[in-house]
Design a protein that fits this description.
Keywords: Membrane, Transmembrane, Transmembrane helix. The chain is an alpha+beta fold and 131 residues long. It is elongated. It is built from 3 helices and 4 strands; from the N terminus they run H-H-H-E-E-E-E. The relative contact order is 0.15. The chain has a 4-stranded antiparallel sheet, covered by helices on one side. Helices cover 38% and strands 25% of the residues. It has 2 domains: 33 residues; 94 residues, no CATH class.
């Protein structure tokens, strides 16, 4: 092999060896711009959501937070409506993930409000679905 060809081949091998590791690290550390993901514990998810919508946040600001962070056009949605309800709650799917072979997991957050429509508590629940 000529020295130029050997140099190009070694450079190509170095790039193909380290590029997947760099991409994986970027996705893992960056979280793909997600506030939460399904692999996190319920306590961590609740803590992160309380960072964006602390106790005392208005229902209007919670809806804006949900629209900004979870309505990404990829299936995330606010459930079931945005209108005030008797239970004074807003529920949203905040993460989706795999829970095994042909089984998916939904992580749902429910914001609870007082009679002035201010956040008092966030409940995290998980559900699984599949064939």
């Amino acid at each position: 092999m000529t020295p130029i060809l050997r140099f190009k081949l070694s450079k190509l091998l170095a790039v193909t060896t380290f590029m997947p590791v760099i991409i994986a690290a970027a996705f893992y550390l960056g979280g793909c711009n997600q506030v939460v993901h399904s692999g996190q514990s319920d306590q961590l998810i609740r803590r992160r959501l309380l960072t964006g919508t602390p106790r005392g946040t208005s229902a209007k600001d919670v809806l804006a937070f949900i629209a900004k962070n979870f309505n990404d056009g990829a299936g995330s949605q606010v459930l079931p409506s945005l209108a005030p309800n008797e239970q004074r709650t807003i529920e949203a799917v905040v993460a989706r993930g795999s829970a095994g072979y042909m089984l998916a997991e939904l992580v749902t957050a429910t914001w609870h409000f007082d009679d002035q429509d201010r956040v008092t508590y966030i409940l995290i629940s998980r559900s699984h679905y599949g064939p």
